Inverse folding.
């Protein structure tokens, strides 16, 4: 599938057949052309953004990846899953991007499991030219409204850091994000935006590339800082980041890789090649969710807000309620069990993971099979080549974390009678 993401001024008069086209920030009169961030530049200028060309081109790239990811349907591919995506993006300075295209394609293959072919041309919309406001923050931290990002924000504040908190607008989570940012002292500089991708036709629901928009917003927000090579804090527990294959069928892109260490490493390596000077920091890459909760620097605040956070992979399916049976929900429940069971006031659709529920029955089974396989054949046999990305010094740390994470899940499944 071919996808074109272009400024309105460089959009072809006639879109070739078989090409899905999008325009950045201004809508085309052609109803078949999708839109990305319509009207956003004016809002950024009003907020004082004046990013460099390199930073802005990364934002265009990140949003274009999300648009292509939404527009290309996996079921239409030869194997019903793996896609071949040819993406052309108009940028302000495409030279470095074309030189690094092969590395970017490999990075995206890690993230989405698809085969990408990238090309970059001149003609991208220029950066917003707002009147830059002096920012007194010293880093950027992702704030999703989830439990991990809450812990990350609490720890950063306790350590004396002053982050710009960055969020993607997400229905009911948006108010939750604002509440957490204000509580953590970052309300004034809280950046809360949406890519506003809109187009006619079917949308791909798997959205393995959705995290690129988050990273684009984080890099853009880092442009407000005055410190050199600012940190972008990505607060995700190591178990979910590695997302080990619980069953053979959950390999590769069938498991999300939003913060997978290999993807994060590839992203960090490519950023300076395209002129973006930031440092991605994953403080919890060797921690389980339960360990994050137990070691959080301010237990009082954590206990006050922990149950209010969201973790569920099917939150919309159950009318903004945690299902209690998907892998993220089970990891959440298991973390509370390790930390403080009485603090889990979350409303779950299924309070017991062994409860009936056709749409999510596979996840508890997968976790149970993985735990039993590790017990019978050993953890290393279960993991296989899962940790092949890690260096020899890091591999024992990842292994310990994964073993501990499976232990937390085993406690949950034993409590609920599934083991």
């Amino acid at each position: 599938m071919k996808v074109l993401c272009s400024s309105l001024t460089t959009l072809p008069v006639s879109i070739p057949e078989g090409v899905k086209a999008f325009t950045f920030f201004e809508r085309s009169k052609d109803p078949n052309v999708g839109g990305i961030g319509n009207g956003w530049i004016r809002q950024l200028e009003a907020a004082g953004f004046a990013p460099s060309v390199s930073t802005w081109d990364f934002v265009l790239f990140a949003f274009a990846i999300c648009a292509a990811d939404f527009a290309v349907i996996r079921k239409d591919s030869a194997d019903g899953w793996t896609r071949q995506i040819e993406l052309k993006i108009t940028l302000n300075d495409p030279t470095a991007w074309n030189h690094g295209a092969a590395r970017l394609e490999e990075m995206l293959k890690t993230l989405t499991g698809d085969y990408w072919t990238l090309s970059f041309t001149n003609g991208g919309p220029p950066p917003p030219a707002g009147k830059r406001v002096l920012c007194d923050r010293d880093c950027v931290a992702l704030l999703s409204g989830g439990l991990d990002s809450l812990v990350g924000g609490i720890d950063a504040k306790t350590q004396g850091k002053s982050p710009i908190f960055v969020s993607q607008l997400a229905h009911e989570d948006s108010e939750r994000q604002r509440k957490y940012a204000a509580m953590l002292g970052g309300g004034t500089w809280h950046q809360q935006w949406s890519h506003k991708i809109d187009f006619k036709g079917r949308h791909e629901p798997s959205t393995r590339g959705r995290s690129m928009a988050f990273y684009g917003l984080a890099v853009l927000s880092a442009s407000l800082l005055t410190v050199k090579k600012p940190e972008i804090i990505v607060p995700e527990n190591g178990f979910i980041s590695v997302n080990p294959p619980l069953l053979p069928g959950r390999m590769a892109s069938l498991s999300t890789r939003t913060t997978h260490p290999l993807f994060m490493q590839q992203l960090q390596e490519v950023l300076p090649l395209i002129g973006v000077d930031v440092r991605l920091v994953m403080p919890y890459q060797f921690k389980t969710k339960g360990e994050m909760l137990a070691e959080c620097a301010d237990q009082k605040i954590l206990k006050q807000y922990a149950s209010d956070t969201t973790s569920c992979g099917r939150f919309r399916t159950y009318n903004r309620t945690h299902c209690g049976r998907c892998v993220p929900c089970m990891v959440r429940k298991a973390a509370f069990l390790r930390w403080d069971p009485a603090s889990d006031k979350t409303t779950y659709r299924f309070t017991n993971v062994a409860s009936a529920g056709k749409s999510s029955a596979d996840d508890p089974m997968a976790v149970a099979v993985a735990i039993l396989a590790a017990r019978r054949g050993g953890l290393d046999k279960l993991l296989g080549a899962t940790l092949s990305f890690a260096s020899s010094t890091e591999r024992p740390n990842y292994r310990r974390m994964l073993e501990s994470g499976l232990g937390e899940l085993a406690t949950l499944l034993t409590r609920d009678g599934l083991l």
Q: What stands out?
A: The mean pLDDT is 93. The chain has three domains: 2-122, 139-281, 311-415.
